[in-house]
Here is the input.
Amino acid sequence: MPYAVVLELVGEKPPPYLGKHAHGLFFALLSQMDSELATRLHVAPRKPFTITPLGEGQGTLLLRLTMLDDELLSPFLHTLLQIAPKGLPLGDTSYRLVRVLSTPEGHPLAGRVSWEALRDAPSVTEVALAFRTPTVFTTSKPGGRTRYTPLPEPRLIFRSLLEKWQAHSPYPYAPEEAAALLEVLELELELSSFRRLRFFRVQVARGFFPGFTGEVQVKLHGDCTEAQRTLGILQTYAFYAGVGAKTTYGLGLTVPLSTKSS
Amino acid sequence: MPYAVVLELVGEKPPPYLGKHAHGLFFALLSQMDSELATRLHVAPRKPFTITPLGEGQGTLLLRLTMLDDELLSPFLHTLLQIAPKGLPLGDTSYRLVRVLSTPEGHPLAGRVSWEALRDAPSVTEVALAFRTPTVFTTSKPGGRTRYTPLPEPRLIFRSLLEKWQAHSPYPYAPEEAAALLEVLELELELSSFRRLRFFRVQVARGFFPGFTGEVQVKLHGDCTEAQRTLGILQTYAFYAGVGAKTTYGLGLTVPLSTKSS
Here is the structure.
């Protein structure tokens, strides 16, 4: 069951490179919990979680974690609560855990959904998404070139989400079905509008990445009911999976804004 | 020789649908000058001119025209000056021509350049462009679908400019060379940043089109000197040719901001 929790931490001063240190803290906790799993996840090309510092104020730091692996959340929270009294290191600063917010009432970016509810999400023909932290797509090209695309192109948004769905969902599409869906989405999706689009250059681990934040509305043309169903799934899934690259370093935090059922 | 002139007009009140009426006025003048040419250009898929109302204030209206056809400008201006004393109709309003501004000193959006100077423009590896009026790309898809992309994707910007170069320049690339260049540009161009990106929905003739305005910086990777040369040409050409669709209705007015020679 995909989960999103928000950890409320207090400490003396927020360290620089918060995304990197949050990433480090998460893996340190994971190692305590299951060192073999931590090693495995560290090298996994697609990680079943996202980690996003939500900013801080007056010594309080909010850290959002989402988990796409059913097996991961409760042992992780167990380890977190065991370790927390000794202090949670983020860079040079030791933080105290104040609360774990796990419902939308506790924090609007927390929540959960079952894989079955996702799979059965209502079909939609229009999607509105807000990209709350810088979001970027890694576009590989022939000859080992890596290019970054910091623009909300509908085909890149939904290709990223479909790949994350295929990687983590217990109900993936058959490969040939996923390929056909991608083709339909590529042909039939259109950006109907955007708002507050801003460009950022952010440090992630050892590199700098371009990224955008803002809100987009995307329309699905045509009458492919399977594509409409997939769009409904993926827009809900985006809240847990994030969009694009480096979502374990705080990038790509995405919130669906509204839906229009077909 | 590509030319940009700005007409300063005065009239009682600016009509709605200025882009449409400016388009109509231009073709009316063209018909007076050479009705056969006007008919031919009206149906031409790629028109060797752009028409952009630059906004108005206190009864004054600025109308920018660019011409990519060497044969077009002087007979057109001749006709304009002949007709102008009788009044120039824009919608229901008759406008008077006050001045024709044809140099950058007269108006920063006026100027000219020879095809030879364009062809020999310095190579660049970085380009900064400002999209001053809503800009959109028409992306055709299989099955007769027409999609609009209101985002400054480097490959769409430079594909549009290269196609306009091929259509109007007396020094086009050989078709196979143009295809090879497009491929390199597609692989090696990357959006390095954007600023002030805004979304618009604008009425053009009978339809509404999405579009963006804003500033972008684009980087050319790799070391293909021919691509660097082409980029230098196209960024200068953008000032005269405009970018994307509906440039004869005021869309896609584009100004190069700076260059970095390679």
Notes: Residues 138 and 144 of chain B are 12 Å apart (CA to CA). Chain B touches chain A through 26 residues (CB under 8 Å). The longest helix of chain B spans residues 225-241. Chain B has seven helices and twelve strands.
